[in-house]
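Known limitations

Files may contain more than one protein. Parsers should not assume a single record per file. Below, a two-record file is shown to illustrate correct handling: read the sequence, read the C-alpha cell line, then continue until end of file.
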Amino acid sequence: MSKLCKTQFLKNVKRPLWLFGLFTVFFCGFVTPIIAESLTQSHKEIHGKVTDANDFPLTGVSIVEKGTGNGTISDVNGLFELTVTNSSSILSFSYIGFQTQEVIVGERTVLNILLQEDSEILDEVVVVGYGTKRKGNLAASVSTVRSEDIIRSASTTTAGALVGKISGITARQKSGVPGSSASLQIRNLGTPLYVIDGVMTDEGAFNNLDIHDIDNISVLKDGAAAIYGFKASNGVVLVTTKKGGKKQKQQVNVNAYTGFQQWTKYPKLLNAYQWNYANDMADVNSGILKDPAVIANKKEELEKWKTGYYNPETGEDYRGFDWYDNFVSKAAPQSYVNININGGTDNTTYYLSVGHVNQDAVFKDYNFNRTNMTANFNIDLTERLKVGAQVLGKIENRVNPALPGTDDYAEMRSSLYNLLPIWRPYANDNPDYLNFMAGHDAARNMAAYTIDNAGEFNQIWRTVQPIFNIEYDIPIKGLKFKSLLSYYYADKNTTDFEKGWKEYTYNSTTKVYEIKYDRVDLGQTYLGKDTEHVEELTAQTYFDFDRTFSNVHQVTATVGLELYRRAWDRLYIYQSPANNTFITMLTDSENNKVVNNALNYSTASWVFRAGYVYDQRYIIDFSSRYDASWRFQKGSQWGFFPSVSGAWRLSEEDFFKDSEISSWLSNVKLRASYGSMGSDALSTGIYPYFAYQSGYNYDVGGTIISPNPISNASDNMIIGSQSKGLPITNLSWIETAISNIGIELGFFDNKLTAELDAFQRIRDGIPAYPDDVIYPLESGFPAMPQNLNSDKTVGVDGFVKWSDKAGDLNYFVGVNATLARQMNGKRYGELFLNAWDQYRWSQENRWANVQQGEIWMWETIGVFQTQEEIDNYPINIDGANNTNLRPGDLIFRDFNGDGIINEFDKRPLGYAAADWPWDSSKGNKNPLLSFGINMGVEWKGIDIAADFAGGCMNTFVPDWHVKYGPYRTQTGFVYNSLDVWKHEDIYDPTSPWIPGKFPAPAGWNNPSLRSWNDYYTKEVNYVRLRNLVVGYTLPAKFTKKILLEKFRVYFEGSNLFSIDTLQDYGFDPETSTVTGFDYPQHRTCLFGVNLTL
C-alpha cells in the first residue's frame, strides 16, 4: 500500500474505530450488567460479618453469588448485606491471604463467616522474567511494591510514586517541572530496563502510566536480570497492570482530587535597598568607589532606595520591584480524575480505565496535562485455551510561552535571579508597554513571558499499544505454550512559535513611550515544527513448564524466542525570522531549514530458564539469554548471558522447626546469585551507529555554496561530506558480572520481616582509545576505540518492616535503605609526567568522579581576624604575598608545605558533586545512600499513612552565582550577601571591621570567593516528608443508602517539609546543578474522594 493510500485509509477508518471503541466500553461497562440484572429475580436478603481466626473483622472481602454478577464487599467492620436469588444460592467469600469459602444460603438470613489463612497465598506471587514465582521460592534479589503503596502519592509519574518505598531503588527528583519525573536507578547502576506487561520499553513509557492502573511492580536487582540480556545490565523494573477478577462482581471505581501546589523553597533574594547596599560595599572594598563626591551621592541614593522614593513628575523612581512575589504563583492548581470498571465471570475478566491529570506550573501560561486509557480483557475460550487483549494509550500535552533559548522553564527560573530588583516590568508602570532595562539582555523581561507576548510552545504526545497474548495448556501435565504480540506507536508533534515583542522607555518630560527594542525588526522571531514517529513491534513465543513430582520435587522451565523491531523518524522544519502573526504553518521563505533523521533496527533473542525446588527448602535457578544486537558487525552480534542463583530455606528444616528458636524466628532464607550480562549501550561519540561500515557522513560542517556552472552565480547549493573514518571492527559488548548474597528473616509469625543484600557489579570492556597506538599522520585517521577499561560498583541494600493489628487497629512501619558506590577499575595506557600528575589525574582504582575538578579543592582551616594576622602570615595564599587579602578572608591548608597555596595543595574533599550543566559526565546522579521510612495506621474507617524519603553522601559545590553575591549583573541571595565581613561604615574603608559568616565582598577580586574551596561546599543530607495521606471511609450502613459500596474522602500532601543541610541557601536538597537553579519540587496539598459503585 502506498504511503498516500495508507494515510487516506487511516483517515477513513479513524472515526469508525473510535466510535466502535466507545461503543465497546459503554456496552461492556454498562449495558451488559443492566441486562444481566434485569434477568435476575431477587428474593432473599442476607447480612452478616466476616472475621479471621482471631475474631478480627476483615475489610474488603469479596462476596459473590455464584453464577451471577451479584455481589458486594465487607465494610471496615467486616459487615455485609446482600440480596440473593433464593435459598439455593451459593455465596463465595474470597480475600487475599485467606482460603476462599463457599456457603449455601439455605434458610438462614444471617451468615457469620470465619476465613482461614492460606499459607500458600500468604507466600505472595512475584512477577519475574517471563513468568511468576512464589516469593518463598525466589533465589534472586527481587523487591516488590503493591498498588496500595504506589497510589499513595501526588506524583504525576510512576518513578515519583516509588521514591522511598522500595529497597534497591535510588532516586533523585532533580526538577519539579510539571510532568517531570524522579531519576530512577537500581543500586546507582544507571537507567534500568523497564518491562510493562511482558513488553520491554523505556523510561518514558514507564513514567507515563497512570499509577492507579498499576497492580504491582517488581525490581530485579541481581543476576536474575540476565534473562533480559544486554538491555538489563542496570537491572530491570517489571510492571503488571490491573486486570479484573474471575467471578468478581462488577465494580465502578472513581478516584478524583483537586488542590494546589507551590515551590517547596527558593532562595530569598535581595530587595532593591539590599542590592544597592551590597554592591556599594563591594565597590568600596575593591577600590572602585573612592571619590568622596560619588560616595556622598551613593549614600543619598541608598537612603532613597530604603524609603522607596518616587516622583512621577521628574521620573525619579527608587521603589524597586519583587520579581518573585509578582511572577511566581503561591497556589498553582493540580487535579486528577480516574474512572475504572472491572469485574469478571467464570471464564472472563475485564478492566477498563480512563484517567486525566492536569498540572499547572507556578508561572503563568505553563501547563502539563495527560490522559491515560487502559483496557484489559481475558477470556478462557476452553479449559485449555486462554486469550487476552489489552490496549494502553495516552495523550500528553505541554503548553507554555515560547521563549528564546532551548529550555523555556530554565529561562523563567534564571530570570528571577538575573532581573535586578531595581528594575520594573512596565515602562511608567503601564502594562501596555513592556519596560526596556538598559544594560541587560533585552530579551529577558518576565512580563513578556506570556503566550500573548512571546508566542506558544505546544507539544502533543500520542501513544497507543495493543498487546495480544495466548496461552494453551498442552495435554502434558505442567506444560503450556504462550505467545505475545505487541505493537507500539507513538507520535509527537511540536510547534514552537517565538513571536516578537517591543520594549519601551518612558520620557517623563515629553510623556512619550519610546521603542528601544523590537524583536521583529531585529529578525528574532522563530517558527519550528517538529514531528517524530516511533513504531515498535515485539513478538514472543515460548513454552513454560511447571510441575511438582512426589509433592517435593518442583521443576520449572521456560524456553522461547523474542523478536523486536523499532523504527524512528523525525522531520524538523524551522524558519527564522518567521511571520509574526500566522503560526499554523510555515510560509515560503528562503529562511526555511529542514532536518530529517531516521533509525530502524531489529534484535533477536533466545530465552531459557530452569528451576528446581526440593521440599520448599533447597532452591536453584538457572537462566540465560542469547542476544543479537544490531550495533555490531557480523561475527560480533551475538552474546550469551547466563545467570545462576540458589537459596536455602533454613526455617523449613525439621531441626529448625523443632527448636525453641522457631517460636520467635519464623523465616530464615539464605541466598546467593551470579549473573553475566552484556551491554551495547556504547556512546555514539566513541562508537557511532554503523561505525563498522566504511563510507561518508553527509551534511557535515554546514552547506557549501559554489558558483553555478551555467550562470557563474553563487547560487548552487552543495551538501558537504566527510569520511566516516576507518571502520571499527574490533569493538563489541561491554561485559557485566553481578554477584549478590542475601538473607531474608521473619520474626513473630512474620509480623517483623527483614532483608539484607550485599552486591557487586563489575563491568569490563568499557570502550576507550588506546593512546599508545599511533597512526601515521598522512592517514588522516586517529586510533580506533577498543574494549579496554573496567569499573566496579559495590554496595548493600535492605529493609525492615513491622506489620500488626490490635483489635480494630491495623498498623505498619518500615525502613529501607540502599548504599552503592562506583569505583573505576582498569584504565588503559594512563601516562603521567610525575608522581603528582599521577596522583591528581589518574582514574585507575579511584572512586568514580574523584579525578574531576569539581571536588578537588583547598581545605579551609580558618578565617583571618585582623590585618595584622594577614601581614604576619607566612604562607602566600593569594599569589601576591597576601596583599589582596582582608580580614574575613579564608585560610587554606598548605598540604605540601612549600609556603604557597596553589594547585598542588588541592585535595579531593567530599563526594561526587552535582551535575554540571555544560558537562553531564561530571557529578553524581543520585546520593550514594538513599533511604525511605514508611508508616501507616487504620482504625474504624480512619487511615493515615506517611512516606519519608532521604539521601546522604552527596556534595553540593556552588559556582560563582552562589559565591560572588549580587555584584551588578545578578540579584543575589540574602543568605550570603548580607551576613559578611564589612566595615562599620561601609563607605569608609578605614572604619573597623564587623565580623560576618562570609568573606567581605569585593566584586570579582577576592581570592576566597574565586577559588574552589570547601568553605562553600555543602554535604547534602536530607529527609523529606514525601507523602502524607489522611482518609476516612464512611461506614457501609450509610453508603448503602446512597447506592455506593464505598465512599472515602482524603487529604494528600507531598513534600510538606524537609530537614536538610541546604536550608540556609534555600535550595532544594535534590538540586542537580551547581547553580542550584533547578525548578524546585512542588509542595502539594490535595483533597480527594474515592467512590466504588
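...continuing to the second record:
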Amino acid sequence: MFYKTTTQFKLVKKGKPYHFSRNPNIKKRKMPTYKLRGIDVDFPFEAYDCQLVYMEKVIDALQKRCNALLESPTGTGKTLCLLCATLAWRKSLGGFSTGSSQRKSEFHGSQSDVGPSESQSSNHPTIVYTSRTHSQLRQVVQELRRSNYRPKMVVLGSREQLCIHEDVSLLRGKAQTNACRFLCRKRQKRSCTHFSRVADYMKSNPHIGDEPVDIEDLVNIGRKYGPCPYYVARELHKTVDILFAPYNYLIDREYRGSLNFEWHNSILIFDEAHNLESICADAASFDLSSGLLTACISEAKHCVDLAVGRREESNDKSGNPDNFAILRALLLKLQKRIDEVPIESKELGFTKPGPYIYELLADLNITHETASKLIEIIEDATVLLEEDKKHDAKGNGCRLEIIGNILKSIYRDKGNGHADSYRVHVQETEANATEVFKGKSSRILSWWCFNPGIAMQEFSERGVGSIILTSGTLSPLDSFAQEFKLDFPIQLENPHVISSNQIWAGVVPLGPSGRPFNSSFRFRDSPEYKQELGNAIVNFARIVPDGLLVFFPSYYLLDQCISCWKNMGNTNSSTIWERICKFKKPVIEPRQSSLFPMAIEDYMTKLKDTSTSGAVFFAVCRGKVSEGLDFADHAGRAVVITGMPFATRTDPKVRLKREYLDLQAQSPREGCKMIKLLSGEEWYNQQASRAVNQSVGRVIRHRHDYGAIIFCDERFAQSSRQSQISVWIQPHIKCYSKFGDAVFTLTRFFRDGGSRTPAKPELADQKTLDLSPSSTKPVPDEIKTAQALDESYTEKLSVLSTSMDLPHSKHKLSSLLDVKSSNNSSHLRDIPPANLSCFTPCMDLKKLKRSSDPMSKEKKLLITGRGKMQYQNHDVIGLTGHLPSDKQQSKEQQLCSMKKHKALLIEHDKSSNVNASDAQRSVPRDLPFTDDGDAEVDAKFLNHKKNDVRGSAEQLGAEETRGSAFLIQVKEKLSPAEYKDFVGYMKEIKSKVINIGNPLQCIVELFSGSERLHLLERFKDYVPARYRSLYEQYLETSKRNA
C-alpha cells in the first residue's frame, strides 16, 4: 500500500529576508514499527519478510562498522528500506540536526566550495547517499518524503543545474566555474546579486533542509526569493545528517576534495551500484585520439591569436600569448611522439606497463613539477575560449579542458603508488578523410585503469565507517569484493516479493526443429542457427501478450539475424520477419544514443496499437534498453536472452584486463592476501552473467507484475551458468528438453495471468529478526480510512467488473482455452514449428468469470471450433487440452462463439446453470484457436442458451443487472477500438492507480458528444466517492462543450 504524502513545510514572507518554517498543521502519521537488532524502524506499510531481512543487514553493517553488498530485486522497496534502516540507526545515536541548533558556522563566501571544512564538527556520522543520476536521486527524495524520518538533508548539484545567474548559467564547464568564482569575489562593480543574498537567507531560514528538498526546490527558492541555489546547497551540506549526490561527487577526486564534512566514521551508500566497477575504472582512465589532439592544437593556436589581439586593442595582459604558444608546441610534440610509437601488429597494438606514461611525457619535458604550471595555462586558455563570442557561437565545448584533466589524473599523488594498476596502450584506428589526404595514420593513446578499488581504498584511508553497495542486479557478488579489494562481510541476495505463479523462467536449449541454440562464435553465423532462433521468436511473439523484449549478445548478431530473417523465405511463404510482424510490431535498438528516445517512443506507440498483440523490442545486452529502463506490466511481459554476451576476447582492453587479473592472482600483494583474487577467466564470465542479469531485470518491476524469462542458449542449462543468475530467479528456472514443452507451459502461464496475486515469500532463517511487540501495532486510523475508501470504490467498480471482462493485459493471446479433452494426455504432443503454424483462425472468444456458486460441481463448457484444420499438409492440433489449473477453488467457464453457424459442446461439468451477467458481460476477442472437436451443434442452440441465461437475471442483484445493461449500451455506442480503450481505463481505475484523474478524463472524452451524454451521466454512479467531485467537474465541462 502506498500513501500520498503532503509537503510538510512552507515558505513564509516576513518582510525581508524570507523565512522557512514548518507547517504546524501537519503531524507525523503513525506507521508500523519493527525492532531490528535493537533498533526501532518506522516503515510506511506492513513490511515483507525480505524487506525486514534487508533492513536487518543494513543495520548489522552500520553497527559493526563494516562494508556490505546487498542485492534486492527491483520492486522490493529497496530504496525505502535502505533509507528507513539507515536513518533509524542514525536516530538511535542521537536526534537529527534541526534549525539553528546546528548552524554555528558563518558563511565564508566563494571559498566555501573548496578547502577544508570550517563548519562545526559533529559527534554523529554523516550519511552520504549516492546514485548514478539526478533523476534517480529525485526518486530517492520522494521515498524519503514517504517515510516518518526528517533528517537535515540536501541534494548536491553542479553549477550547470543550479546556477540562476542570467549570464553565467549559459556557460559550461570550467568557464562557468571560473566566471562564477570571479563574480562571487568581493567587488563593488561586477558581482553576483544571488550570491550576496545567501548569507541573509541562511540566517533567516535556519530550518531549510529539515524537510526533504530536491534540486528543483532549491532552484525555485532561488528564483522566487533571490539566494543562489548552488551556494545554498554548498552551505547546507556542512551541517546535514544525510547528503545526496551523484556518484562522481565521491569517485572524482576534484569533486571529492570540495566536500566539507567529517569523513571519519561517515557512511557511504552507493545505490544502483551494478556498474560501479566500470564507472570507477573509467573515471580514472583516458583515451586521447589523434582527432582530439588535433582539435586541442587548433584551440591553442586560437588562444595565441586571441591573446595577441587583446593586447593590441585594450592592453589586456590577462592572457600571455607566449604561454599558449608553448602549450601548442608541447601538443605538437606529443602528437609526433605518439605517431612514432612502433606498432608491429594492428590487432595487438603497442602496450607498456602503466609507469611508461611518465617516460613518454618526460621526453616532452612534462614532469610533476612542470605539469602544474601547464595545467594553469590550460585553465587560462579554456576561460579565454569560452569568452570568445566566435568560439561560443560554434556550440563546441573546450577540448583543451580534457588535456588538463588527463594531466591531473596522471600526476595525482605525485604519480606514486597507482601507476602499476594501469596499462599504456597505443592502437591504430580507421583514419578520417582529412588524415588520409595528408598521409597520416589515426591513433589513440590510452591509459587504462584496471583497479576500480583505488577510489574505495582512499575512502578506507579516510576512516569511513561503512561502505554499502546495493542494487537490484549485483550478482555475482564475488567479483565486487575481489575487484574493489575490500572485505564485504555482510552480503545478501534477496528473494522477490512476488509469488511463484508470477514468474516463468526456463532454459530452451533446442528450437522448434530440434536444432540447438548456441550463439557462440562457432555457431552464430550459420543460417540454420538464425532460422531456428527466428522461428522460436515467431512462437514467442504469438504466445506472449503485449511487450516482448529480445536481447542479443552484440549489435553484430542483432544485425545479422534481422537481415537473415528479412530475406529467408520461400516464394510461396512469408519470411520469418513478416511472420514476427504479423503478431508484434518490431522496434530495433539504434546504435546512436541520439536516436534512442525516438525508438522508445515508437515502441510505446506500437504497444498501444490494437491491430496486433503488442510490440517486440530487439535490443542488445549492455545496451541502452538493458540499463535503467522500466518495462513494467504490459510494456514487458517477457524477455528473451538469445545468448551469453561475452566481450570480444581480442578487444585490447578486455585482453589486457584479463592479463592484469591473472598477474595479480599469481602474485598477490600484502594487503590482498586475505581476499580471494579474481582470475581473468572468472572476471570474463562474471561480466557476461551480470549483463544477462541486468537485461533480465527489465521485467517484473513491482510486486503486482508478472512476466517470463526465456533463456535461448544451451549453455544456460549448465549449473555453473545458472549459479551466476540472480538468486531470486534461480529457484524458478526449469530446463526443457523439447521446445514444445516450453511452449506448452509458457502458454499456460500467460493464460492464468489475470488471476495472479503476489504472496509474501517465506524465508527459512529469521533468527536475527526481533519482531516482537512493536511490529504488531494496530493500523493507524487514517490508514484504515484510506483502506475503507479503497474498498468502497472497489465494491462499486465490481458491479461493472462482474459484467465486463477486465483482462490483466489489453492485448490478446493465442491458444488460451482451458479445455479438457477426453483423449488428451497430460503430456503435450509434438508442436508444429513456427513456419507451419502461422495462421489466424477467425474466432470470437467470450470468457465467463468463475462461478460464485460453491455447490456447483459440474458445468458445461460451450466452445466453437473448426474441427481439424489443415495447413501445408500438417494437422494442427489443440495445444491446450488437459491443462491443470493452479488453484482448484472454483471451476472456470468459458463461452465461445463463432462467425460460422456451428459450435462445439464439451461436457466440462454436469450443471448447466450459467450466470446471466456472465453472458452479458462477455467481450469479443479475436484469438487464434484450434481444437480437436468431436461434436457439433447448430448456432440456434447457442442463441437458445443465451436466452436461458438472460432469463435467470432475476436471481441477480439489481446493481449487477443495472451494470450489465449499462455495458450493453456502452458497446452499442462505442466503436470496437473505443470499447477496448474503455476496458483499459476501467482496469486502471480498478487497479487503484495513483493518478486516477487520467483514466476518468479519458472516459469523459470517450463519452463526449450529444449521443453519449446519457452514458456520461450514468457512469457517475460507478466513480469512487472521493473522486466524484472531480468527475463532476469533467462532466460539467463536457456538457458545456456539447
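Parsers that stop after the first record will miss the second one. For reference, the second record is described as follows. The chain has a mean pLDDT of 74.
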